[in-house]
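Researcher: We're teaching a course module on how sequence relates to structure. For the next exercise, students receive a sequence and then see the predicted structure as tokens, so they can try to spot secondary structure elements on their own. Here is the exercise chain.
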Amino acid sequence: MRNFSRLVLTAIFLLPGFLNAQVEYQPVTQQALRESAGGGPIDFKVLVDAANLGGEETRIAELTFHPSYDPQPHTHDSIEIFYVLSGRFGHNVNGVPAILEPGDIGICRPGDTIIHSVESDEPAVVLTIWLPGGAAAPFHSPVN
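Model: And here is the predicted structure for the students to work with:
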């Protein structure tokens, strides 16, 4: 039993290192990986994805929703987490509306029907995390 416990503890501490040893990633990124040209209803800065993470485990982006954004129902194949940096962000999930303000967090699960909106005359800026990240491409799928 003692040897089994040692084996389990060794696997817990060493296995992640072995799994990650093959992956090349950039532990520090000085700037956005990709940015929109600006001026659209949604501007984005991709901060973390496979380009610097080395895998599709997550994607993180700063999204700026402008008041001209046209709310449309959509879904994702991934978990989507929002952290509001500024503005008032409408977050309707499966028909349950909420308005998120700076410091608030909103969460969507895969398959949820989501409608985002801007709830003021100022843009809403949100840090958005998708898990897994590859499922977030391009960013969402419209609901028919």
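Model: If you want an answer key for the exercise: Residues 17 and 24 are 12 Å apart (CA to CA). Residues 28-142 form a domain with the Jelly Rolls fold (CATH 2.60.120.10).
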